[in-house]
Design brief:
With 399 residues, the chain is an alpha/beta fold. The protein is built from 13 helices and 14 strands. It has a 7-stranded mixed sheet, sandwiched between helices. Strands 1-13-14-12-11 form a 5-stranded mixed sheet, covered by helices on one side. Strand 3, helix 4 and strand 4 form a beta-alpha-beta unit. 49% of the residues are buried. The mean pLDDT is 97.
Length: 399
């Protein structure tokens, strides 16, 4: 049992810190999910969540994890043997591909280096070559949680359009929704996958599919088996303000509060805050690294993530040993490296309910940890981050 004073710093890239407002909102008696009180709550949430996705179309809410939302996106739109074009941006893109294979689809994986997002030109090239339109869907991860690389979804949409290809466009926003600018309708996405435990500031337990008219039409001809994840029953019930099975009632209370919080701050302000914290974190890492120490994993500045920063350790240093030092000395959890990045990377989450002072505490813990773990670094990264934040504050004050 942890007996250290103060609050634990949960600086993994999700689940994130759940704000007190949301905790209080969920601290309600369980109510009749078929009664009028819950119906009013459901109608409020089903309407409000559309704005977070940037859509006027339905958003389907399942009790489940993001993995469930991946599966729902595939089984409602595709049939066994269908070819799916996917892109290797990291661990989670790889897991989505594995899930597609298990469902009986034929995913084609465009190889990536895990240090950038999707290259739209490669998507366009492959689709142009598919003159028979055998590829039925393009699936990409907006923000790859394992690497801190964010794909430009509008550019991928443009690539699909330039190829003149009719494939469905499916996008995972699990670690970007409510943190990084996203526009389901404007960018022509057919299914957007989301989860509750990151930018939406909730505990794990809710997953989402935002669906286009094209995706809904595709469901009618999709042949993959589905029951729990079926959209048609959900859409029919949601039209009446109810669910076809027992929803996660108290998480829905929390979701209503999360939507209110995001709208009160303003989504543009939310996105700008995340970009500011990301820039400050990269400034710290760049200073610590100096000439050959730690470095930001993402190498393409256009793909830098606002949700998290993945940090490469110097050769010979183990990221998990470093994370253990930080946890034991400062009661702070940092994200670990996943699959082929295991032991090579630690990840700093700076998303969700998070402010400048929380970031400075996080970065101070990292810098002290580097010192205690004897990881080669140049002191002063925390001050470099502070400079970014104070400059932003001065600019905002003068605006």
């Amino acid at each position: 049992m942890n007996t250290m004073p103060g609050r634990h710093f949960l600086q993994i890239p999700g689940p994130t810190n759940v704000p007190d407002r949301i905790l209080r909102a969920m601290d309600m008696p369980t109510i009749d999910h078929r009664g009028p009180q819950f119906q009013a709550l459901a109608e409020r949430v089903l309407a409000g969540i559309r704005g977070i996705f940037g859509t006027t179309n339905p958003v389907i809410i399942f009790p489940g994890s993001g993995t469930g939302a991946w599966e729902a996106a595939l089984v409602n739109t595709l049939s066994a043997g269908d070819k799916v074009l996917m892109y290797e941006t990291g661990h989670f893109a790889s897991l989505w591909k594995r899930l597609a294979t298990r469902l009986g689809l034929q995913p084609e994986f465009i190889e990536g280096d895990w240090r950038s997002g999707v290259d739209p030109a490669k998507i366009e090239e492959r689709l142009r070559a598919d003159t028979g339109h055998e590829i039925k869907a393009v699936c990409v991860v907006h923000n790859e949680t394992s690497t801190g690389c964010t794909t430009r979804i509008d550019e991928v949409r443009a690539a699909i359009d330039a190829a003149g290809h009719p494939a469905l466009f499916l996008v995972d926003t699990i670690s970007s929704l409510g943190s990084i600018d996203y526009r389901h309708d404007e960018w022509g996405v057919d299914v957007t996958v989301g989860g509750s435990q990151k930018g939406l500031m909730l505990p794990p337990g809710l997953s989402f599919n935002a669906v286009s008219d094209k995706a809904i039409a595709a469901q009618k001809g999709a042949g993959l088996p589905r029951s729990y994840w079926a959209w048609d029953e959900m859409l029919e019930a949601n039209g009446k303000g109810v669910f076809p099975f027992t929803p996660a009632t108290n998480l829905i209370y929390g979701l209503a509060e999360a939507i209110d919080m995001l709208n009160e701050e303003g989504l543009d302000n939310v996105f700008a805050r995340h970009q500011r914290h990301a820039a400050a974190t990269r400034a710290a890492v760049g200073h610590w690294g100096g000439n050959g120490g730690v470095e930001v994993l993402c190498q393409n500045p256009r793909h830098f993530s606002g949700s998290l920063t993945a940090v490469m350790m110097p050769d010979g240093e183990n990221a998990d040993d470093f994370r253990k030092v930080v946890l034991e000395n400062f009661n702070m959890s940092l994200g670990n490296g996943l699959s082929k990045l295991n032991g090579k990377v630690f990840r700093i989450g700076h998303l969700g309910d998070f402010n400048d002072l929380m970031l400075m505490g996080t970065l101070a813990g990292v810098e002290m940890g580097l010192e205690l773990a004897n990881v080669p670094h140049r002191k002063g990264g925390t001050e470099a981050a502070m400079d970014v934040l104070t400059k932003a504050a001065k600019t905002a004050k003068g605006a």
